[in-house]
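Case 362 in the screening queue. Each case pairs one protein sequence with one candidate compound; here the compound is adenosine-5'-triphosphate. For every case the pipeline is the same: read the inputs, emit a complex structure as tokens, and attach any notable structural observations.

Predict complex for case 362.
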Amino acid sequence: MIKNNLAVNLINIDVTFKQKNHVIKAVDDVTLKIEKGDIYGIVGYSGAGKSTLVRVINLLQAPSNGSVIVNDQNMLALHSNQLRYARKKIGMIFQHFNLMNARTVAGNVAFPLRKSNLTKKQINDKVDQLLALVGLTDKKLTYPSQLSGGQKQRVAIARALSNDPDILISDEATSALDPKTTKSILILLASLNQKLNLTIILITHEMQAVKQICNNAAVMENGRIVERNNIVNIFSQPEVKITQEFVATANQIDEAIDSVLAQPNIKHLKTNEVLIKLKYIGTVTDEPIIVGLYKQFEVTANILAGNVENLKDTPVGNLVIILSGQANNVKHALKFLEGLDVKVTILKIGNDIKSVIGGSKR
Ligand SMILES: Nc1ncnc2c1ncn2[C@@H]1O[C@H](COP(=O)(O)OP(=O)(O)OP(=O)(O)O)[C@@H](O)[C@H]1O
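Case 362 output:
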């Protein structure tokens, strides 16, 4: 068998559920390749098929069709003992933690090791090590009911790591947590990815989480993957409508535009003004743009909102500005911006400028 760098290789996966009167195709011809060491986001609305798809990876859900290759092993060809071992190398965490309330933190983390060949002392050392890794050393003998949601999820993460998995599947693991706790859990996951070279598959409907830690993402709708790309492309040029909707939920600039549009001076934009949004990726920066507009075209640019985000070290900038000047000059200034590889969207346009450029929205 040819070895490759893929942790997960799902090929043409279908999952159908037969109910009394009808058949539900929860996963419809999905091919998904996830490289070792990646943090891969799977995004979609409720019912899109995300959980069903990832449950195929460890065969908690058998596919109706397709191949499941995990770490170069054909999962569907394994005997039960081999499958049990392969499953141990795929950890899972969930939205509701699934901890055992009658056991202490240590008891929960040690639970998956109960049938291992490790001695009591070795298990105890392993638990200490895992609790240190997730920052919960001082909670070893505490019971889950005395922990916050974020702490409970840390216990669940430690437990998921007890068999030294290569892959960790996080199924909406931060969905029940507040934004600050969510952020800290995501920071923990990113650090585990680095320290343990752990491949992480992050199922979520929260684009902010994807933006924070993923390298790649796929978007699911009706059982299919409708778009997949690296994180910079997903966020800077989403192609399909549903991806655009998801991206908009994590895009502060759209909120800023709503409040800009509500301002009185924007409601009554002057005839020689145009309100635009600029989006640029990589090295172009605001200042030369603004200076260039005035020097070359005598067009003034008034910045109303803006931000620069780093998506995996690639800066993506957004600016909302009013350009004002002689109509023809503004027309040339807009052309100049497009020539710089800046995406220009006209949000609102004054009548003078509209008459020269036709007022088409771009
Ligand atoms: N065991 C099952 N029996 C019948 N239908 C199922 C089963 N599991 C899932 N489904 C159906 O398959 C579809 C996909 O469900 P799935 O849970 O994978 O979606 P999801 O994207 O993970 O959504 P959520 O985030 O709400 O769990 C849904 O229509 C669901 O009702």
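Case 362 observations:
- The CA atoms of residues 94 and 206 lie 15 Å apart.
- Residues 252-357 form a domain with the Alpha-Beta Plaits fold (CATH 3.30.70.260).
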